[in-house]
């Protein structure tokens, strides 16, 4: 079942298109990461999905209905959630639930339920001003899911957290994705790789990739050979770059990274070049590009 559908989404600021016709579909209970460099348009796109900003062109639908008419089905955690520090988590969620017109009896039970889910039950009555960054983000998740939304949207949920808070947030999202559709923006690729079903890469307001991690690794990754050797490196590189399957050679420390288009042909080219050059190779190792390297190629072109 299609949960969220975005078609031809566009947004203009000061006469300039910052979102340039994005199409994106997210299925029910799917977890999708929206990644891209700063200024790519991630937050603008998210603010349109949650109806904080109006799009200039295109459609956003949830369960086939215009997102404007079903805003109550969307839960949202902004990058820097704001809370009244003098309130406790319980008081804050009461306040949020009343704003959402939740019935009092249901609200009482739901507050206990979400505080348990996000791991704040032991700190439910402590002032929010005493909370760590990770605890505040978990409270942010609690308020976002309090009204039982069908889509949870998070804008850079771990960007301001220390490693402990980040790990807590990832564990929480791992639990939530079994129950709810999730879209979150991030620039931390390891997080996207760890918990997401799919990754959407945005650059300059355009979607440049929308695939599973496995698909990205299989379709976008090219074989890389890491070579360490002693000898005439300039002559060796010149010889190797004449081969059509060799895209580029990068030196990182003492290691030469040879990027090729084909694993078998690349291996033959590297080994052949080493045999024909005066010197001695210390190590030759084959690997594929990491998600970070694929991302850098996608947004750096």
From TrEMBL:
Gene3D superfamilies (UniProt xref): P-loop containing nucleotide triphosphate hydrolases
Annotated organism of origin: Listeria swaminathanii
ABC transporter domain mapped to chain residues: 4-229
Top-level taxon of the source organism: Bacteria
Keyword rRNA-binding appears in the UniProt entry: no
Keywords, comma-separated and alphabetical: ATP-binding, Nucleotide-binding, Transport
Keyword Nucleotide-binding attributed: yes
InterPro entries with a match to the protein in the record: AAA+_ATPase, ABC_transporter-like_ATP-bd, ABC_transporter-like_CS, ABC_Transporter_VariousFunc, P-loop_NTPase
GO molecular-function terms, A-Z: ATP binding
Protein name per UniProt: ABC transporter ATP-binding protein
One Pfam family matching this protein: ABC_tran
